[in-house]
Amino acid sequence: MIEGRVQRVGFRASCNRRALDLGISGWVRNLSDGRVEVQAEGPPLALSELRAWCEVGPPGARVVRVTPSQLPITGDDWFEVRY
């Protein structure tokens, strides 16, 4: 979960591009409470790089907190923006 000023700043689209560049699969979506949720799978180094990116976000974002969680692996081979 990503908290702060993370909606209406292009966070999902930017996260999608970054994840694809890193070869990560999963998804990103806005939540109704103003947070952004990301589920990502991939090599540990790529996941660390995506997390570091999420801690800053795109220009205009003001990330306050990134809270990771461990989820079951799905084996998907794409990354998408969910609505």
Percent of residues in β-strands: 25-35%
Stretches with pLDDT under 50, minimum 5 residues = none
Strands in their spatial order, largest beta sheet: 3-2-5
Mean pLDDT: 96
Structural class: alpha+beta
Which percent range fits the helix content?
A: 25-40%
CATH structural class: Alpha Beta
Number of helices: 2
**CATH topology group:** Alpha-Beta Plaits
The CATH architecture classification is 2-Layer Sandwich
Strand and helix layout:
Layout: E1 2-5, H1 11-22, E2 25-30, E3 36-41, H2 44-54, E4 62-66, E5 79-82
Parallel strand pairs: 2-5
Antiparallel strand pairs: 1-4, 2-3
Q: What does this protein look like?
A:
The structure is a single chain. This protein is of the alpha+beta class. It has one domain: Alpha-Beta Plaits (2-Layer Sandwich), CATH 3.30.70.100. Helices cover 28% and strands 30% of the residues. Strand 2 and strand 3 (36-41) form a beta hairpin. Helix 1 (11-22) packs antiparallel against helix 2. The protein is globular and about 30 Å long. It starts with a strand and ends with a strand. The mean pLDDT is 96.
